[in-house]
Amino acid sequence: xxxxxDYEIKTSINEMTIAEFESISALLKNESLETxxxxxxxxxxxxxxxxxxxxxxxxxxxxxxxxxxxxxxxxELKPSFELGGYTYRAYEDGTEFSxxxxxxxxxxxxxxxxxxxxxxxxxxxxxxxxxxxxEHYADAHIKFxxxxxxxxxxxxxxxYMLAVTERINQQITNYVKTTGADNGVxxx
Length: 188
Hints:
mainly alpha
């Protein structure tokens, strides 16, 4: 927590829910606003009244902004968790996380269409153990899971966003290197 005058605000991903983190991310990506305006929106979203924001000194504002940029998140991937009496599993204990091809196609679609990207990625990767494949990939089920996963701690599940991004970038880089797709010349 960080204090802006008399108002405590969440600045660490470990203090936020996935839904809060997604909202803050969307505000910070809003290209219709200037950078300082984006942080005003974030601070207001976190509970600092507009009247207080209007009175902040530049030092107070920049210290608040700085507090967002100094927080570290865990990199540990949880293979499963329980929620609402159900077990949701991304991969088996004792094995290494990997993306399924179908999951990757759903993640690609979600990245283009969803603003709640982390909760959607979670909803695609984590499957309820008592359901089959057709239920896992049903749009209504994915939307339902994305909504309930929004209440989970963002710091605990953000590593999945990092892992998915890293794996996709790694695979694309390997593809480009092996095929010569980066310069139009086939690899030897």
